[in-house]
Each structure stands twice: as structure tokens, then as C-alpha cells.
Specification:
The complex is a heterodimer of chains A (323) and B (245). In chain A, 28% of the residues lie in helices and 28% in strands. Chain B has a single domain, classed as 3-Layer(aba) Sandwich (Rossmann fold). Helix content of chain B is 25%, strand content 31%. Classes of the chains: A alpha/beta (323), B alpha/beta (245). The complex binds flavin-adenine dinucleotide (FAD) and adenosine monophosphate.
């Protein structure tokens, strides 16, 4: 019995969501006594691998034997399943990222395991093994029992507080030989460089149709930069091409759960709120006091975005002040 | 080209979500059901790919008879035929195993699902199906073209987009941007009435998870308003009281 975490990496380092997955596994391990094994694909740098032990991995496994430089869900899930079987893993923890969502279901088939994606909290193990997952696009949560000996859990980023838990981990190599070459050939990657990915951001500044036009987004971006935030937008804003579709949050866009969501000139339609209502703290800035967003917000400013944003920016740039 | 589109039927996006029976069941009272928006995209793109090459598009749905209006709608949008596996879709593993069981020897070149169903948000059926059928899969695709038996794809990745290619057969999941959803016209609606809708009894697929209970997000305490002239105070509050920046 052991817990295997898929240590997803980007640009040669582990993602924050990976450390969250390790912490999640650590919590389960502290209850059951099972060891936490973090498995990385194609990462060999000892200093990078060591970071997994800071969050509670007892064993760090580096999987090699084929190239994992390009993403192919079939190859990666086969490698992870082989690794999991080699250590008798009965719980597998993965981040619910785009890649994680491609791998987790495949792993569950290969491992004959029960699957829960979009998991937002630690399991309760008093009566079976129950997880809490987001359903109805952020409008509700479900408690789901996982009724198989092996479980695959895909944990939504930002669901768990990171806590350091230094272990003196052991380091192992696992060689994986795929039975056939990857069928999916990646031909290009286009990353928006220097920006915080929306799904991982702890603070998000978002603009709606109240921003009047793409030429005013400088104000949103400046405030985001001052707060170390990612930027997002409402659906009509991306539909009109003011902002890229990848920034569209809501029921038919991305669901996010940052610590802080600042909505500027967004009315707060039910489909928009669905994607953001799990945010810890919500700020609404809208000139209409009747805007529905104020019912879903913790803090609000009834005012003109074009007057309020410069004031916020100035205060955000002015460093820490005592209230 | 033979394409299979997996379709789920979900509560309309404006639905206010509530539960009954001590929060153990979703309250379907007064709920309007629609084709899952991502599946509508998958269906439209499937038609765009199949039509020029005289291919076929089949829609499959795992669900009970009350989904038939939505299945007819898919036929009126343009699918040639539909299959309904007559069982309650209890979890993604059950749904995928039923679809895999039905599709495995039918020779589909391309199987399309939505990125996720907007009710259960599993995003799981694409990968499950592909693994069960031992096929490659690419999820959250924003583009697909097919030339000479090879699919050319673009998909969302965290913080960007990736292009790739893969020989058919293949399983993909549709993300927004794939195409503009097609709306049924009068001719399509008339034609849909006589298109085949086969009802198939389920095989021995089983669910490995069970939905025990539901909860709504905690209600907000009520908004604390800050005067627009004192907007700077908000930053202080977020820093020192809420401690989120
Ligand atoms: C099937 C379906 C799915 C959908 N999915 C999504 C989704 O995923 N995400 C999403 O966002 N929407 C979604 N929508 C659309 C949603 O219903 C709303 O139409 C949309 O969220 C409105 O965007 P908005 O708030 O930016 O624009 P509006 O509703 O036009 O609101 C603009 C707001 O800005 C305020 N404002 C104007 N000027 C100023 C100013 N100078 N200063 C401050 N405030 C100002 C106004 O008071 C108003 O409240 C969906 C709709 C449907 C039918
Ligand atoms: N009951 C169902 N019948 C057929 N296809 C389904 C069903 N449920 C989900 N799907 C397909 O799987 C996709 C992802 O669903 P999910 O894994 O539930 O988020 C949907 O967009 C559909 O294409």
C-alpha cells in the first residue's frame, strides 16, 4: 500500500499544484501510515527532484526510459500506471490541470480504479473513502464515495493550503519502455510568456463589458501586475475579441478558485458567478448598486471603474500600509 | 469518415441549483434540459468534417427516455442517426464503459466528447473511453482538421495552446473556440422526425463511485461597501484584514 503522486512539471520545475498534490497525499499518509511516492516524468535534476521532499514525499521516483518532452496522454498514463504498480500504489493523486485531466481517467482504467476529478478537499475516511468535488460548474459540491480498492484523485489547484513538511526522502529511478511509440506528435507550443496561468493564480483581476473596450485593459493589467495577479474576463468580452478566449471564466469558460477575485464592470450573471464563486474573497466594482455581483461579493465599491481603478492601482503600488 | 459524438443532457445554464431528500438528490423540479454546450460544439465540428467527404455522424447518449427531445434536437442539427443506451448515467466510468462496449467494433474514425459536462464537470469520459478502446486521445481541443487519415489539432494547455497531429482513430474532447454551434433549421427539424434513434439496453458496465450527498457553497455574509473616494482603503483591508494580498 502506498500513495503515488504524479509530480507534473512545466519548464523543468514542478508546478505549485504539484506541491499541493503532495501535501494532499501527505495528509492521507499521516492517517494511514502509507508512504508517499512522488513520481516525475523525465525530470532528473537532483535539486529539482528534492523540492518534492519539502512537502512530504517519502520517496521521489524519476521515471525515464522514453522521452516525456512532449505530452502524449497514452504514453504518460502508461508510464505512471507501471510505476504505480511497481510500488503497489492504491491511491493516486494528480493535479486537475489540463494535462492531469487527460491522464487521470486513463490511469483509472489501467489501474482498475475508481476515479474522482475536480476534487476540492481532503477525503473523509470515517465510512469508506469519500471525496468532495465541485459540480454544476461551481454552483455546488458533491460528496462522492469511491468504491474500489484503488483510487485516482484529481485535485483542483488552489484547493489546499501548502504546508512544508520536510522529509529525508529516498530517490529511485524507474525505467519505462512503452509498448509502442506515441501516436500524438506535438508540433508546436504557444505559451503566453511571463504571465501567471489563470488556473493557478492566487489573485485574479477580471474585467467585463463595463470596461467599454479593449483599449482600457491596460488599467486591468497594471493592477494585476501590482498585485501579482492573473487577468480574466467575462464571456462577452472574449466573444467580442477584446480579450483572448483563454481568459474567459464562468460556466462555459474556466472555473477558478483564487484567494482573491476582483471583478470590474461585470454584472454578475449566474453563468459568470458559477465559475468564480469558489474564490475565497470576492470584490465587485460596478457603477450600478443593483448589479447582482454585490450579492455574491465580500467587498464592493459602487463607482465608476475609470475613477476607482487608478486609486486602487496607486494604493497597490504604494507597498504595505497599516490600516 | 465515420464520427461518433457523445452527448450528455444537462440543466440549462440559468438553472438555480437546489437539492431534495436531505440534500441527497438534485432537484429537477422545473429544470430545463439542454444539450451540453461543449457537445453541441463537438457535434457541429463533426458535421463540418463529415459533410464534405460524405462521412457519417452518429450521436450516442447514455440516459433515460426523458432525454429524447435533446437527442431529436441533435438529429435536427444534422446528425444522421442516434443511439440511446437506456440506463441512468450514474458516473463517468459507467457512461464510458457503456459507450465503449457499443462502439468497440463499429469502426469509428473519430470519437468526440465535450470538454466536460456542465453538471458533473468530470471531464473524464474522453480519457476513459480512449483508454477502454486503447486509442490515443487529445482533450480540450480548440481546432481539428483531418487530412489523409491524420488529425491536425490544437488544444488548451495551462497558460497557452499546443498544436499536434495524430493518425485516426482518435478520441478528442471539444473546448470553446472549436466552431460556432449550429442552430437547427426547419428542414433539419422535419428531417429529424424520421431519422433513426435506436434504443439499446445497457451491457454490464458498473459505476465505481456513488453520489452520496450535495451541498451548496456557503452563503456570503453580505457585502461590505467601500466609498469610491476611499478606494485605497480596500487595498488596506485586503492586505491587513482579509490577508489575501
Ligand atoms: C449558455 C450561456 C453560457 C454562458 N456562460 C458564461 C460564462 O461562462 N461566463 C460569463 O461571464 N458569462 C456567461 N454567459 C453570459 C452571461 O449570461 C452574461 O451575459 C455575461 O456574464 C455578462 O457579461 P458582463 O457582466 O461583462 O456584461 P454586462 O452584463 O453588460 O455587464 C456590464 C456591467 O458593467 C457595469 N458597468 C458599466 N460601465 C461601468 C463603469 N464605467 N464602471 C463600473 N461598472 C460599469 C454595468 O453596471 C454592468 O453591471 C453565458 C450565457 C449563456 C446563455
Ligand atoms: N450520459 C452521457 N451520454 C453520452 N455522453 C456523455 C454522457 N455524459 C457525458 N458524456 C460525454 O462526456 C463528456 C464529458 O463528460 P464528463 O466526463 O461527465 O464531464 C460530455 O461532454 C459528453 O460528450
Amino acid at each position: 500500500m502506498s500513495i503515488l503522486v504524479f509530480a507534473e512539471s512545466a519548464d523543468g520545475v514542478f508546478k505549485k499544484s504539484t506541491f499541493e498534490a503532495v501535501c494532499y497525499a501527505r495528509h492521507i499518509a499521516n492517517k494511514t501510515g502509507a508512504p508517499v511516492i512522488a513520481a516525475a516524468l523525465g525530470i532528473t535534476d537532483a535539486a529539482v527532484l528534492e523540492t518534492l521532499s519539502h512537502y512530504g514525499a517519502d520517496q521521489v521516483m524519476s521515471i525515464s526510459g522514453t522521452s516525456f518532452d512532449h505530452f502524449d496522454a497514452q504514453t504518460q498514463s502508461a508510464a505512471l500506471a507501471a510505476a504505480a504498480q511497481s510500488v503497489g500504489a492504491t491511491t493516486l493523486v494528480i493535479s486537475n490541470t489540463y494535462s492531469g485531466k487527460a491522464i487521470a481517467p486513463r490511469l483509472s482504467v489501467l489501474m482498475n480504479a475508481a476515479l474522482a476529478t475536480n476534487v476540492v478537499d481532503l477525503p473523509s475516511t470515517d465510512n469508506g473513502f469519500n471525496v468532495k468535488r465541485g459540480v454544476f460548474s461551481g454552483k455546488a459540491f458533491a460528496h462522492v464515495s469511491m468504491d474500489a480498492a484503488v483510487k485516482v484523485i484529481a485535485l483542483t489547484p488552489n484547493s489546499l493550503e501548502l504546508s512544508r513538511n520536510e522529509r529525508s526522502a529516498s530517490y529511485t529511478n524507474f525505467s519505462f519502455q512503452p509498448s509502442s511509440a506515441a501516436k500524438v506528435q506535438v508540433t508546436g507550443i504557444n505559451k503566453v510568456s511571463g504571465k501567471i496561468p489563470l488556473t493557478e493564480a492566487e489573485v485574479v483581476v477580471s474585467g467585463g463589458r463595463g470596461m467599454k473596450g479593449p483599449e482600457h485593459w491596460g488599467m486591468i493589467e497594471e493592477l494585476a501586475a501590482a498585485l501579482g495577479a492573473a487577468t480574466a474576463c467575462s464571456k462577452p468580452v472574449s466573444d467580442m475579441g477584446w480579450r483572448p478566449h483563454s481568459e474567459h471564466v464562468g460556466q462555459t469558460g474556466i472555473t477558478i478558485k483564487p484567494n482573491l477575485y476582483i471583478a470590474v464592470g461585470i454584472s454578475g450573471a449566474i453563468q459568470h458567478l458559477a465559475g468564480v464563486s469558489s474564490s475565497k474573497v470576492i470584490v465587485a466594482i460596478n457603477k450600478d448598486p443593483e448589479a447582482p455581483f454585490f450579492k455574491a461579493a465580500d467587498y464592493g465599491i459602487v463607482g465608476d471603474a475609470f475613477e476607482v481603478l487608478p486609486r486602487l492601482l496607486e494604493a497597490a503600488r504604494s507597498g504595505v500600509q497599516q490600516a | 469518415m465515420k464520427i461518433l459524438v457523445c452527448m450528455s443532457v444537462v440543466p440549462d445554464t440559468t438553472t438555480k441549483i437546489t437539492f431534495t431528500d436531505g440534500d441527497t438528490r438534485f432537484n429537477t423540479q422545473g429544470v430545463q434540459y439542454i444539450i451540453n454546450p461543449y457537445d453541441e460544439l463537438a457535434l457541429t465540428r463533426a458535421l463540418e468534417l463529415a459533410e464534405p467527404v460524405n462521412g457519417s455522424v452518429t450521436v450516442i447518449h447514455v440516459g433515460l427516455a426523458d432525454s429524447e427531445p435533446s437527442i431529436r434536437k441533435a438529429l435536427s442539427i444534422g446528425a444522421g442517426e442516434a443511439v440511446r443506451i437506456n440506463a441512468e448515467p450514474t458516473d463517468a466510468q459507467f457512461v464510458a464503459s457503456e459507450i465503449a462496449h457499443w462502439a468497440k467494433d463499429k469502426g469509428f474514425d473519430l470519437i468526440m466528447t465535450g470538454r466536460e459536462s456542465i453538471d458533473y464537470n468530470g471531464g473524464a469520459v474522453c480519457g476513459l473511453l480512449a483508454a477502454m478502446l486503447d486509442l490515443p486521445s487529445v482533450n480540450v481541443i480548440t481546432k481539428i482538421d483531418v487530412q489523409g487519415g491524420v488529425a491536425h489539432l490544437e488544444r488548451d494547455i495551462d497558460g497557452g495552446r499546443e498544436t499536434s497531429q495524430c493518425p485516426l482513430p482518435l478520441v478528442v474532447s471539444a473546448q470553446k473556440d472549436l466552431c460556432e454551434p449550429r442552430i437547427p433549421n426547419m428542414r433539419g427539424i422535419m428531417a429529424a422526425r424520421t431519422k433513426p434513434l435506436a434504443v439499446v439496453e445497457p451491457s454490464a458496465g458498473s459505476a465505481l463511485t456513488q453520489y452520496r450527498s450535495y451541498e451548496l457553497p456557503p452563503a456570503k455574509q453580505g457585502v461590505r461597501l467601500i466609498e469610491p473616494e476611499r478606494a485605497a482603503d480596500l487595498i488596506n483591508i485586503l492586505r491587513n484584514e482579509a490577508k489575501v494580498i
